[in-house]
Amino acid sequence: NELAPGDAERYSECIRHETIRVAVCDQVEAALKESPDCPAIFREQILKSFSESYDKYEEIVKGKLHLTGTTANTFGFTNMKYQYETLLTRMRGLREQVKQKCEAAAAAAEAVNALVLATDATAATN
Q1: Taxonomically, which superkingdom (predicted)?
Q2: Contact status, residue 20 vs residue 87, Cβ threshold 8 Å
Q3: How far is 50 from 55, CA to CA, in rounded Å?
Q4: Which of 13, 106, 114 is nearest to 51 (CA)?
Q5: Domain parsing of the chain, residue ranges
Q6: 62 near 71, Cβ under 8 Å?
Q7: What is the C-alpha to C-alpha distance for residues 30 and 49, in angstroms, rounded to an integer?
């Protein structure tokens, strides 16, 4: 039950903003930093999920840019300002960091594979 018309939508908007800020961006940052707050077993999955869902997150944030700087006053979110421009910049930076980390991991795996093949070839000729 809404206390005032639009309360449910305003509450949903606050939850959407905070979910992207905390549950997405903060967790991706923790995974990239290999923080103890982000267990190693989850890090790869967090980064993979972020990469797979990035376009959806960006679309949501771009659609809400007009709310940047406005105040949310609803159900426990008092005087919270929407920061969608900041979120978009942050997400784009995280996307680049995730891409670089994935490329570095792929290069390292390729180097290991090449070393294993070279070792196997050397062993086969001896």
Answers
A1: Eukaryota
A2: yes
A3: 9
A4: 106
A5: 7-94
A6: no
A7: 14
Cβ density class 56-65: b for 16+ within 10 Å, e for less: ebbeebeebe
pLDDT tens digit sequence for 16-33: 999 999 999 999 999 999
Retrieve residue 26's tokens.
Answer: 């903060």
Q: Residues 72-103: pLDDT tens digits?
A: 877 777 788 999 999 999 999 999 999 999 88
Helix (H) or strand (E) holding 107: helix 84-125
pTM of the model: 0.79
Task: Find out whether 91 and 57 touch, Cβ atoms under 8 Å.
Answer: yes
Residue 1 corresponds to which tokens in the numbers above? 């039950």
End-to-end CA distance of the chain: 79
Query: Alpha-carbon distance 83 to 88, whole Å?
Result: 9
List of residues 6+ apart from 79 with CB closer than 8 A? 71, 73
Q: Which residue has the higher pLDDT, 124 or 56?
A: 56
Residue for token pair 């905070």: 18
